[in-house]
Amino acid sequence: MFDVCVIGHVTQDRIKIDGKIVQEMAGGTAIYTAIALKTLGLKVAVLTKTAPPDRSHLLEELKTRGITVFWIESPETTQFENSYQRDRLDSRQQKVQAVASPFTPSDLGQIQARIFHLGALTNQEMSREFLQAVFATKALISLDGQGFLRQVINQTVQATDWSEKLFGLPGVDILKVDIQEAQLLSGKTAIEPAAIALNQWGVREVLITAGSQGSWVYQSGTLEQIPAFAPTTSVDPTGCGDTYIAGYLYSRFTGEPSHLAARFAAQVATRKLENFGPLREWQTPKSIPG
Questions:
Q1: Alpha carbon 136 to its chain's center
Q2: First to last CA, the chain
Q3: Which residues pair with 115 in a beta bridge?
Q4: 49 and which of 74, 125, 134, 177 could share a cystine (Cβ 3.0–4.6 Å)?
């Protein structure tokens, strides 16, 4: 029995800042969330797909860190190019050179976890049938809305509503989206009406992130705004949202209420921002400022 099983494609990521390639690495929610959860101290598994030639180098760090990997062969490995401007790290442009094959219900096998975190990167990754199989496990379900709202057309990511949301959202306990995703998914412009709409569709805890502007958590009729924590230096924003949800899941798993879990998540995401790659080190502070 794992504490958390993260499901999603591990990607071959290329990161550009001001037009220059600064890093090439394994990426995707399956990397960033899983490693952060392991760093924070949970027992973690990953279910993913890559092409065989990419298996060893893309999954190496997961295995080295003691994360159990359930690997399934795919004809292709998902490949992302993330481009940023140094003065606007909250905004990025993306290109997708390839997408791995979607997950199927049989891929779940006999995996047992207290929490399943669904980290799709595109809307081709997880079908209604696959979601149904995950929901049937009766585990707590966490879902990052990002990939379910991404359609890839001619290697370009385009935002599109989730066609299966009225089926999918009622099965989700914890939903993480950014402001634009919340607006698209809910059809509401303002934060609170968007959070309320998502909650009314069945989501128990709604997290809405906004980078340096902070985040919001909505649960049991209450919306709380959570401040962002200032980084000592901004190095690499890729995976900050994945790290935020890792911090939140860890904190909720260890018994903290949602508003304190969101504050912890914000701090963990800031520590990741200060370094390339996933959150690899963490020392729990005596208290969270503010």
A1: 21
A2: 36
A3: 4, 140
A4: 74
Q: Cβ distance 102 to 125 under 8 Å?
A: yes
Separation between Cα atoms, residue 161 and residue 183, nearest integer Å: 10
Return the half-sphere exposure (C-beta side, CA atoms, 13 A cut-off) of residue 71: 21
Pairing verdict, β 20-27 and 44-50? unpaired
Pair of tokens at residue 243: 């790290």
22 falls in which pLDDT band (50, 70, 90)? low
Q: In the structure encoding, which two tokens stand for residue 53, read together?
A: 């030639």
Contact (CB, 8 A) for 288 and 278: no
Which contiguous run of DSSP H or E holds residue 89? strand 88-98
Residue 175, strand partner residues: 143, 206
Extract the runs of DSSP E, i.e. beta strands, from 179-281. Answer: 205-209, 215-219, 222-226
Residue 135 dihedral angles phi and psi, to the nearest 5°: -60, -35
Token readout for 236 is 């690499």
- pLDDT per residue as tens digits for the range 134-149: 999 999 999 999 999 9
Q: Which residues pair with 151 in a beta bridge?
A: 158
> How many angstroms separate the CA atoms of 132 and 129, rounded?
5
Q: Is the pTM of this model over 0.70?
A: yes
